UniProtKB/TrEMBL annotation:
This is Extensin. It comes from the Bacteria. It holds the Pfam family Extensin-like_C. It comes from Erythrobacter litoralis. InterPro entries: Extensin-like_C. Residues 75-238 form the Extensin-like C-terminal domain. The lineage of its organism: Bacteria, Pseudomonadati, Pseudomonadota, Alphaproteobacteria, Sphingomonadales.
C-alpha cells in the first residue's frame, strides 16, 4: 500500500513537472512572439505585412513588396504617394502587345534628356535605386553629388533581340529603361560605354550602381551580359527573369 501511495505521489509530481514545462514553453513562445512583433513594427523593411515606404531602408521584405506592385498600379501609386514621390499618372496608350494601361511619369527624377512615362513598378524601382544606391555611391566613391542620369529610352514597341519570333520586350509596355551615363554636379560624366572597364573609381562606381539595382529590379543586364549592352544598363520589372543580375 505504501509503495502504491509513493508511486502515486511520484506520478503526480511528474505530471505537474510536465505541465510546468509545457506552460513555460508556451510562455516562452508568447514572449518570443511579442518580441518579434515589436521588432517587426520597428523594422518595417523586414515586415512583409507593413505597407511599403520607399524611404525605409532596404530589407528582407522589400523585394517581395516591389514584386507585388507589378500587377497592381493602383497600390503602386499609393506607395509613391506614401513615400512623398511626385508623379503624374498619364492616360493609357497603345494597343495589342504594346498596350500601356499603366503610364507613370516621375516629376522630379533627374533623368536626361527627358523623363519618359514607365510602369509604376519601374518608377518605384528607379526612385529606390537612385536614393539607396546611385547617390550614395556618387558621394562615397566619386566625392560628388549626382546631377543627372542619362537614358537611351524606355518605351519601344518591339520584340527581344529584334527577332520576329522572340518574346515581346519589356520595353514594349514601358516596363524597362536603358541607363547610359551619370552626370555629377562637379561636371564629370561617367558612361557605361567609356568607364565600365578597369578598376578606377569610375568603374567601381558603375559596378556599385549595378549591384544596387540587382536588389531592386527583376532584371538587370550590363556589359557583362553581352555586347548589345556594352553602352547601357537594362532594368525592367518583368516577371520572366526575376532575379537576373548580369
Amino acid at each position: 500500500m505504501a509503495n502504491r501511495r509513493r508511486r502515486s505521489t511520484i506520478s503526480r509530481r511528474i505530471g505537474r513537472f510536465r505541465w510546468d514545462r509545457r506552460a513555460l514553453g508556451l510562455l516562452a513562445l508568447f514572449a518570443l512572439a511579442v518580441a518579434g512583433s515589436s521588432w517587426l513594427r520597428a523594422h518595417p523593411e523586414h515586415n512583409p505585412w507593413a505597407p511599403l515606404d520607399l524611404r525605409d531602408p532596404l530589407g528582407m521584405a522589400t523585394a517581395g513588396k516591389l514584386a507585388a506592385l507589378r500587377d497592381d498600379p493602383g497600390e503602386c501609386r499609393a506607395v509613391l504617394e506614401r513615400s512623398a514621390v511626385a508623379y503624374e499618372a498619364l492616360d493609357p496608350a497603345g494597343e495589342g502587345e504594346c498596350a500601356r494601361p499603366d503610364r507613370t511619369r516621375l516629376e522630379t527624377y533627374p533623368l536626361a534628356p527627358d523623363t519618359p512615362p514607365v510602369t509604376c513598378a519601374l518608377a518605384a524601382g528607379l526612385e529606390l535605386w537612385r536614393d539607396r544606391s546611385v547617390e550614395r555611391a556618387a558621394r562615397e566613391i566619386l566625392g560628388s553629388e549626382l546631377a543627372a542620369i542619362e537614358h537611351l529610352g524606355a518605351f519601344s514597341c518591339r520584340r527581344m533581340y529584334s527577332d520576329a519570333d522572340a518574346p515581346w520586350s519589356e520595353h514594349a509596355t514601358g516596363n524597362a529603361i536603358d541607363i547610359a551615363a551619370f552626370v555629377l554636379e562637379d561636371g564629370r560624366r561617367i558612361s557605361v560605354l567609356g568607364d565600365w572597364e578597369g578598376d578606377d573609381e569610375e568603374a567601381r562606381f558603375l559596378r556599385e550602381a549595378r549591384a544596387g539595382a540587382c536588389d531592386i529590379f527583376a532584371t538587370v543586364l550590363s556589359p557583362d551580359y553581352n555586347a548589345a549592352h556594352a553602352d547601357h544598363f537594362h532594368f525592367d520589372q518583368g516577371g520572366s527573369w526575376t532575379g537576373a543580375c548580369r
